[in-house]
Design brief:
Residues 1-171 form the RecA family profile domain. It is found in: Nucleus. This is DNA repair protein RAD51 homolog 3. By secondary structure, the protein is an alpha/beta fold. 32% of the residues lie in helices and 23% in strands. Strands 1, 2, 3, 4, 5, 8, 9, 10, 11, 12 and 13 form an 11-stranded mixed β-sheet that branches. A two-stranded antiparallel sheet has the order 6-7. β8 (197-204) and β9 form a beta hairpin. It starts with a strand and ends in a 25-residue tail after the last strand. Residues 238-274 and 276-298 have low confidence and may be disordered.
Length: 299
Amino acid sequence: MNYIVIDTPGLYAQHRGEVPKQLCVDVQIPAAFGGHGGGALYIDTEGSFYPRRVAQMAEAAVAHCRHIAETDDAPGQREAMQGFTVEAIMSRIHYKRCSDHDELTAAVRVLPAFLRTHPTVKLIVIDSIAYHFRYDFDDFALRNQLLGRIAQTLLRLATERDLAVVLTNQMTTKFSDDGQSFSVPALGDAWSHASTVRVILSSAGTVRRAALYKHPARGEGTACYQILTEGIRDVVDSPPSPPGHAGDRPGSGGQGRLRSRGQGRPESEGQGRSWSGGQARPESESQGRPGKRPRLDDC
């Protein structure tokens, strides 16, 4: 699977966190429905994890899979639904709150031991990687060193354990020589090369877009999506594509499909309980490449 960084220019923290929360649910979809049937670990640095919101997404996923099982009646689907409930989904999301960069680095350091005792975990989320490292550091050399160690550990685990690692990042504003401002991912150029896949989320009014800026097997592309009570969904009537833009238009009822301008197959994407064994209860329930902006006209 992949080591993915999600950058979010101009989106509020609760909107940025919608995607990893949806993934925490989707990674648990049973194999009989084409899913991974795995668990998730959510490392929260901003206090933006809402169990009620995840439960809403889980209810929608369960209802959707139940409808498929009743309609298709494919082998194994009805049996899989017995263990695919809202309660089961919530219990398989392990939650860890990190209040500073020391707690975050310590949490990453013990991940190998955690995964040995929780082998079904197929998704690790850190939301967000930038929060403590942007504001707690004056020594940028030390910051980059710590971030490099975290990146190496996560990339090794993603490879060895065949799991997905999703990190949300923040954006910062820079100014060109002529005084024009533009958004770039936080944490500098060195961090921008640490990921296997980079996705930039943006919004213009009510339209939200996910732009794929880095992938080892795909060209750049965009997909429109919307945030509903049920979770992340395709845009039913997305604006027309600009001339010469190849790819399928997202349809209704599923997750957004990236319309690639290159070759390659899309990667499947994966979906709380605290490490101490209790239900996820965060302390607070509140939050492309440098120089290149998201293309908001691609959908």
